[in-house]
Design goal:
single chain, Aspartate Aminotransferase, domain 2, 2 domains, four-stranded mixed beta sheet, globular
């Protein structure tokens, strides 16, 4: 069906709670997407860091078909073989002994918040308060939304659940001041994604870990966007040498199939007892199988290591652009989660890129987010960079 006809149908039947670009995609292959009119786009967003292996990876497609013919769902009253094997793999990879699977990142964060509250009640004398960062983003369900330090996402849905406070990102003194006798957990993204791709500093993370130890406060790392190779390590916390008691994953884990995970240490996980938290599907057989294949490909192709190297190369490239293009105010990020902070609005840049066949994200009013597939090849990367550079250069007014 032609794209214009599909867009008209969408306008009639879909809710208006998401601001979408007027493009309908019909298929994807590697770093490319194709719309229903046949136009090809380079995808430098990867479904917001979801498609770490690119679109329609042949091993992922094969795993999906084989699992669909085998078994998909049995309910949470029973186990699936793939579920157990995936939990075992994630526990070994992270050093966090216990795993709970959900259907999304927001649900993984909800599970983490509930676990922290239950642990605080049973082991910390009834503590319940959770401190997260300003400009953070942890999801749109009520608990995760209450933990999100961005009023623009919260204002329409007040009152939100109580017991949440916010402190300034990369400002340890702000977190020290926010701690009260009721604080049970710190919740942190090590690279803020929706906040504009803001990496934490080593001094801040190490100081926050010391503060958590001093006050007996749980450390929760939201690795939904950064986890599984995106920053050049399996998990972003490995850059800082600070392992949390609780961690959440999603996005790359399911490669587009709905799946999230909440991991915790043996001691903290023991606070959950039967009936405390559950889910009907929690990913399911298709998602578990895909995740196992994602982890295999990442390990075999050494994608975290490749991402670290490629990320450094891109940072050098973007810093070189910054010297030439005065509209680039700042370059920041880690691995293949990068941002260009601009002196001009970012939305028109994203729109012009899209028109020319490149997908990037105006993550804030003045920042462009880049999160290409971790296995992107030079044949795809170079033309995408050239296109982005051209669009940016066209905005520079001759002096």
């Amino acid at each position: 069906m032609e794209m214009q006809s599909l867009l008209e149908k969408a306008d009639r039947v879909m809710m208006k709670n998401v601001s979408r670009f007027p493009v309908v995609f019909s298929r994807g292959e590697g770093a490319y997407l194709y719309d229903t009119d046949g136009k090809r786009y380079l995808d430098f967003l990867s479904g917001i860091a979801v498609h770490a292996l690119g679109h329609s990876h042949p091993r992922i497609a094969k795993a999906l078909v084989e699992q669909a013919e085998k078994i998909v769902h049995v309910s949470n009253y029973f186990y699936l073989e793939e579920q157990i094997l995936l939990a075992e793999k994630l526990a070994a990879l992270s050093g966090l002994e216990r795993v709970f699977f959900s259907n999304s990142g927001a649900e993984a964060n909800e599970a983490a918040l509930k676990l922290a509250r239950k642990y605080g009640r049973e082991k910390l004398g009834g503590k319940y308060e959770i401190i997260s960062a300003e400009k953070s983003f942890h999801g749109r369900t009520f608990g995760a939304l209450a933990a999100t330090g961005q009023p623009k996402y919260q204002e329409a849905f007040q009152p939100l659940p109580a017991g949440f406070k916010y402190a300034k990102f990369n400002d340890l003194s702000s977190w020290e001041a926010a701690v009260t006798p009721q604080t049970c957990a710190f919740l942190l993204e090590l690279v803020q994604g929706e906040g504009g791709v803001n990496p934490a500093t080593p001094e801040f993370v190490q100081g926050l870990a010391a503060l958590s130890r001093r006050h007996g406060i749980l450390l929760i790392f939201d690795e939904i966007q950064t986890g599984l190779g995106r920053t050049g390590k399996s998990f972003a916390w490995q850059h800082f040498g600070i392992k949390p008691q609780i961690m959440t994953l999603a996005k790359a884990l399911g490669s587009g199939v709905p799946l999230g995970a909440m991991l915790a240490t043996e001691e903290v996980a023991a606070a959950f007892t039967p009936g405390d938290h559950s889910t009907t599907i929690g990913g399911g057989g298709l998602a578990y199988t895909v995740a196992l294949e994602v982890l295999k490909v990442m390990e075999e192709e050494k994608l975290p290591e490749r991402t670290a190297q490629l990320g450094q190369e891109l940072l050098k490239t973007f810093h070189a652009w910054q010297k030439e293009l005065p509209i680039i105010k700042e370059v920041r990020g880690l691995g293949l989660l990068l941002a260009l902070e601009l002196t001009i609005p970012s939305r028109p840049i994203a729109e012009q890129c899209l028109e020319r066949g490149l997908i990037v994200n105006a993550v804030t009013p003045t920042a462009i987010r880049l999160a290409p597939p971790l296995n992107i090849g030079e044949a795809e990367l170079e033309p995408g960079l050239d296109l982005l550079y051209t669009v940016l250069k066209d905005q520079v007014v001759p002096s």
